[in-house]
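Researcher: First entry.
Model:
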Amino acid sequence: MKKQSFLPHSLSKLKMVSPLVLFLSLSLYAQSSSLTEFNQFYKSGQYLKALTALEKSNSNDFLLGQHAYLEGLCYSKLQEYDKAIKSFEKAISEKNGNTDLQYEYGQALYAANELKAARKAFKESAAKKFNAPASIYYVAHISQILEEYPAAKDSYTELIKSKEADTKIKQIARFQLTETLLLMMREKIQNKDELEKNVAKYIVPMLRQAYSTDKSSQAAYEIEQRLHEIQKEFNLDPDLLANGRRISSKRYSGYISQKIKFDDNISLTNEENNIQQSKKESFIFESEGYAKYDFVLKKRFIVSPEVRITFVQNSDQDSPEVYQNDNFSINANLKNKYEHLVNGQPASFLFDIELGKTLKDWKQTHKREAYSNTMNLGIGEAFNYFSAGDTSFKIKRKNFTGVNELISNHTISVSGDQTISFTNQHLLIALIEADFINNYNNTPSNTNTYLARFDYLVPEIMSKYTLGLALATTITDTKEQNATRGTELTLNPSIDLSKEINEKMKISVNYDYTKNKSKQSDYDYKKHVFSTEFRYSF
């Protein structure tokens, strides 16, 4: 029967060395020169010479099997376990009184694979209170090897409850107890679904408790590896979804950020979908906070509530057409995914609900007042049709309700994007989107817009630096305003360079250029925006 390798390796650091009873006992007698030599050789690890010195010694120098006991210790050190066993048995028959005798005898028997005799010796060692935690552990472990699982379970439980046992041995005991219980479950429960439920209910929590006992220990590493093995075997890996997609073990994410921008031509948004120029410049201070948590249900549903808060302040507080854009907004969203398969590949059905409220200085009074409410409903599908990367399609309806009824609108958006991963770790993201905006209280301002955007990301362009290049083109069909505005074309290239300060912090600089071509001068403009952002993620 094969022994588990985990025990001797881990327990070696826990096992007490034979006490100095060995040498103290020698001092009770008038030591001969041979005994003095034995003492010196044993202390220095020269066990063959120690045995030779012991053979030369006078038998009158020993009482109650002490000679056989010392001989057994030397043979054990030399890994001559058969001889060690005979010597320890002779010492026992001669009623040797060293407190570690049964423990050392058990060690020799265990090494010689005489497991039942070893277990008996360790039980006696525990009863005599010598190194009781390690002795009990050996009793439990040997019972486990002998497949006497109820006995192993009782001994591991006794050790976990022991006040004498330290944290390290209790951690190992908890680990081995879970292995024992798992073996008992495999024998008793034949139904696969029932076995999975019991493993999820009892074994996984016990392994996590064992791991948490001391996360820095070598045993903790082995426990964690074993936990992953069991979760994989019983389809219990919390990060592996039913369709085979793996998600991050970190369920929450979020950040706070501070942007400082300089815009040389502030855009006016007095009609929410018709952007005009102001020919005014200003610094813009934008603070943002974002948080999200992913709830995973039955390995198929991911429900992700998220919240985003944004505060925008312009430095130019003298120009009404500038500071009217000061705003505060809060968005509460619920992003949902249903994980399934398409053509044998992982896919996600998307269903999103987004609610938003904006306070804005639209009255130009240096006060942010209620300006608009939004509600968006969207559905979509994300899948791996192309081997190069993820593909997704979405359709969304946005209801925008403004305090000024003229800017209230309904928007239907249809979009598709494709991610392409290159062998050099670069990424290309292509997005196409069409927005059909219906200003139902002001139909002459209706527009249809068509956007094409390409983002190219270069990670590690230098150590801890990421470069982002983007180009967006928007075509706006001004519909009823076509005679005055025509069909507008917007070009929007940008470049972003970010540096990772550490795992949680990064800083980035960005340049954004916009040129809008229109027949009407208020809509025909260009602008430059320079920005710096500091972000802390958690």
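Researcher: Second entry.
Model:
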Amino acid sequence: MTRILPAAVAGLAILGAASGALGYFAGSGDREKLVWLAASCALAVVIWAVAGLRGSGRFGVLAAAFAAGAAGQLWLTEPLWFPALAVSKGVLAHPGTAIALLALLIEAAVTALVLAERLRGDPARLAGLRRLGLPALVVLVAAAAAFSAAPTPYIAFGHAPSYILQAAAGGALTILHLGCIAAMLSVTPPAWSWRPPVAGLAVFATVASAFLAHFAFQYIPHVEDEVAYLFQAKTFAAGHLTMPAPPGPVSAYYFYLVTIDAGRWMAVTAPGWPTLLALGVLLGQPWLVNPVLAGLSVWLAYAVFSRTISRDRGLLVAALMATSPWFLAVSGSMMTHAIALFLTLLAWRLLVVAPDATRTGPMGLRYLAAGLAMGWLFTTRPLEGVIVGGLTGIWVLAKDRKRLDRVAIYGAGCIATGLVYFAFNWAITGSPLHAPLQDYLAREWAGSSNSFGFGPHVGPPVNAFGALDMSEGHSPFEGFVNTLTNLAALNIELHGWVIGSLLPILAALVWPRRLTRFDALLGVLLTIVVAVMFTYWFSGAFYVGPRYWYVALPSLLGLSAAGLLAFRDRLSGQAQTAAGPVLWVLCLFAVLIFLPWRGVTKYYSYNKYEAKLVEMLAAGEFGNDLVLVKMINPFGIAIAMRGPDLTTDGPVFARDKGDEENAATIAAYPGRGVTYFPPRDN
């Protein structure tokens, strides 16, 4: 054993060197992924070295094998749309796949050797795991297997047997990784403590999400929603609600969620997030707004859980949030969900105070500020504002039923900022009850509706979203499949642990002793959010995780923390001491291996044309030309990055719609040169 374990580390080092060598000679795309695999193996060796210096080389070998083996599994995982093991001929024939499989083999060998030694030499070493109970472990592993793949593509294309095989393979890999963790719990742990400072966690969250925004997202909107938000933010930053329509054919400027109506050019999204994003536009750094909100959200989450439950729970929730790939990815994007979470936590932090007004300041002002935050949540994401603001109002009423004046102040704050949403509607559509998005989709989706419920006309037109909307209309069965898909996305994205992010949440339900009344309140929020989104036609999980559930992130993290503490409580002796270092390994894996994998394989250069266009725009290569863009996605990114104010110097972007329609567009811009993107073949 003393020779075999160091040999395993040497093997990981060799695999890392092989990956790096392959990456050196590989082309773009493969190169980044191979470098990531090499870096993952190198990190595994570093973990072994640090653990050895801290008094436990054997723990270090196991942790290194776990990190490299889990990276091998990620190599084999479909990164773009829905979580699943990729088994295409191209993947299996890739030389990197052999390295990934060897890493998994090393993890399996090291795990088997250590567990066999413990059972043979001193079975008492594993006694600390016996209190977990076999039935509970079977339930947890089965759940992890069931949610290791998303069912949507398999059901949409009639491949249900493949889904069953995916679940079986996911279950087998989960058992392997859990076995490695069990081996880590059975050996002498290194002297690692798990008490990071809250301020450090908040700063880390800001820096990590900013790095992701810079290196992975490249400051580029990746989906239509982000294009609309940035376009609208630049409109607001220019001091307008809408901009004058550009000249030429209207069809030359078509992009989803950005419209020309009655001579006005505008995005049709709600104004709450673009208003804050406009401040970033004015400062020249709109990409930095969400990372700053990320750091503030970590601090607020700590404060909320510390005051409602305990400081230990608050610290654990803050640590899980700061190392959550889901949280960091959302915070690195330009999506609206980060501000929704921030506003929720801000309101709760203001309300969760001791009732001693002389020590905490005027309580009325706190309730007013909390209401203003909830009202702005409504102005940002109306449905979530109703759900979270309404539940919070009920909670305020329950705990302050003898001080109805405070409840009224909270309600007044909600109304004050919530009215901004209706005022915006009135200014754009002429009716406070008709949102621009509602009118836009009524025109674009004639005969269908972007609404909740079931029926043949709920959802977009047929085939408009492909497999993302499996069938015409919306049915309870499709709602069930969407929920399973969201759970599968949550299982991989929430913590980024290959053992399954749902495991600690399920552990909290299996061993509920750590749950509190505040957890129950958060459980109600999670249940309502999941139930409401069950009736919505779209899961939205393909981009940055199950984003329509994101406002319930405090619920998920609170349950995760409770489950981890309940798991530790059921350990004994040395295994309980090792629980902290094991959690360190999991969180390091999430941040240093899983998150870079996501960045390299999914967010970075997600389309070469988008990245090239932004690069040329930043370098001023288009001058003041009229640029006719052939593909729809690069065009959307172009108008978002350029902005809607065409009175300033810079190019004008329009769609390349063919020579006949292009002639009308070109005629509308006399004196400008014409550039085609991508360039036409001569």
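Model: Note on the second entry: Confidence is low (pLDDT under 50) at residues 354-360.
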